[in-house]
Design a protein that fits this description.
The chain is 1% helix and 53% strand. The chain is built from 1 helix and 47 strands. The strands form 11 sheets. The chain has a 6-stranded antiparallel beta sheet with strand order 10-9-12-7-14-15. It is globular, with a radius of gyration of 30 Å.
Length: 622
Amino acid sequence: MKKLYLLTACISIGFVLNAQVSVTPTSIYQEVAQGSTAAITKQITVTNSGSDTIKYNTWNAYDFEPKSGSSVFELKHCNDQGYLSCIGYDEPVLMEAGVKFSKNDLCDKMGTYIAKMLFYQCDDVVNNVIKYRIYGPGDYSSPGELLMEFVNTDNISGKWNTVILPQPLLIDKSELWLSIELFQERFQTPIGIDSGPLKEGGNFLKLNGGKWIEITTEELGVNFLLKATAIGGVVPGCWLSLTGNSHGKIPSGGSANFNAVLNPSGLEYDAYRATITMVTNDQNNPIKEIPTTLVVLPTPPAPIIYVTPKSISETVYEIGTITKQITVTNYGNAAGTYNATMEGVTNNWITLTGNTTGSVASGNSHINFNAVINTGGLEYGVYTATLKVSTSDVKHPLFEIPCKLVYEPASPSMSVSPTSIEETITETNTITIPITISNSGSATGEYEAQLEGASGNWISLSGATTETVSSNSSKTFDAVINAEGLPNDTYTATIKITTNDPAHPLFEIPCTIVVSKEGIATVTLGDQIMVYPNPTRGEFRIEILDMRYEILEIALIDIFGCVVEIAHPPLKNLNPIFSPFGGSPVGEGGWGFNLGGLLPSGAYFVKITTNKGTVTKKIVKQ
C-alpha cells in the first residue's frame, strides 16, 4: 500500500506588494459572417509598472442562457477502471485533496450542472466526516472562491462514495476545482489513487490548512480518485480559448503577451459573450476583466437582441427611490423592435420610465430605459414582480427579468475581536490588549463593556467602553492587565459587552492570565505546562510538570493564523522549521524544538492540545 509523505509550511509575508498591473485591450468585440470557420486571434498584453513581481492567472466566465437537456458527462482525471491504491500519512493529519479542471476539460460541458461528486475512500476517517467542496478559478496553483461546501457522514470505506449536491452547480467558467477534506488517524490511508499516468497540473494536496501542493510525476505520478457527474443541456463553450502566457510571473518593468482565440466554426448565428478574468497580486486592482463578444451575423440579415441585467434585487432600509438602468442591445445586422412591461406588481413599488417601447438599430446599438423602485408608502416586507421585454428577434423573442425588493428596518450587525484572552506574564509586567467592536450592519450600533468576576484590580478596561459604532466601521477599547504584586497563580475574569444588535445582544470574552516567574512562560489553564525560554533565538522546550496530562498535538501558528507546522507525538518526520533537536524527548514529559533558520523573527503561537484541553500561547523568535 503506497503512502505519501509530503510536508509543507504556510508562511505568511507581512509586507505590502508594489505590483501595478495594466491590461490591453480592455474589451474585445468581433463580428463574423454566418458559416465562418477561420479563428480570430486577439493579442492581450499584461504590463507591470510596479517595483515588485506580478503573479497572474486568467480564465473565462461565460454569459449564456442555460438550455434544457439530458446529456451526462463525467469530470475526472483518474483512471477508475485500472489498479486502485491508497495514500495516507504515518501521523494524524488534516488533508484536503483537490482536482483542478481547466478549459479543455470543461468547454464541451459548458451549461451543464454538476449534480453529484464521487470519492473512493480506502480507510475510515475521524468521526466518519468528509467535507466535499467545489471552488471557482484561482491563481493557478490554488483555487479561488468557495462555491459550495457540504458535509457527508454516511461514508463507507473500501468503495466509491457518491454524494448528491444540495443544489446542482452550473458550469459557466473555464476552471473549477473539486476537493474532499478529511482528518486521518496515524497510519491510515484514506484517499484512493489510480495507477496513473498523472494529469499534469490537475491534482493538488493541502495539509493542516497550509498551502496547496501540486502533485507532480516526480513525487507521486498518480491521480486522486475524485470525480463528478454533470447533466443538462450543453451550450457552446469552446469558442473562446486562451493560449500563450495566460498565467505566470512578470518582473518589475516587464510585460507578457497571450492570445484570446475566437473560433466561430460550427456556431449558429447569435452573440456569444464571455469575460476574460485575470486575478493578480496587484493589491489595488487584483481583478482585471475583459468583456469579450463574438457575433455570428445571420444570413439573411436579422436582429440579435439581448437585455441586461438578468435580474434586479435590492435591499432597502429607508424611504426613497432607486433607479436601475435596463439596456437593450442589438448585435445583429438588421434593426429590431422591443416592448417592455412590468407584471405582478403590488403597491406600485416598481415602475418603468423612458424608452420602454421602440426600435434599436443594428450593429451593436443600445437603447436604455429605467426601472424605478420607490419605498414611499410601503410596509416592511418582500416585494416581487417580473419585467418582461418582448422583441422582434426570433431567437430571443422574450426576456423575463425577475425583480425583488426587500424592505426592512435598518439594524446593526456587531462582532467582537478577540473572542478570548489568554496570557502568561511575569510578576512585574503590564500588558494592553485592544478589543475591537465592528459593525457591518445597516444601522448605528451601540455597546457597553463591563468586567465581571475579577478578584482584585489585575484587569481593567480603558478607552471607549461605552460608545456608538456607525455602519461599516469599528471602535476599540483596551483591556489592561497588571501583574504588579500578584502571586504566581492563574486569574480569570469575563469581559461582557452588551449591544443593540438583536442578533448579538451579548458578547462574553473569557480572560485568563497566568502569572509566572521571570523568564519562564507557563502555558496552562490552571495546570502546569511550560514553554521556555521566551523570547528564544530558535530553540525552546515544552514541559509537563503534571504527568496526568498527555500532549496529543502541537501546532505552530503565525500571526496571520496560518498553520506553519503541526506535530503529534512521537513528533517525528518534521521538517527543519519545527523539529525536535536531539531527535528524542528532552527528559520525562518534555520536548525540545528548534524554530530553525527558515522562519523570520517575530511572534508565533504554540497551540498545545492535551487529553485535558487545549491551550495557545505566544512565543517570540528573536
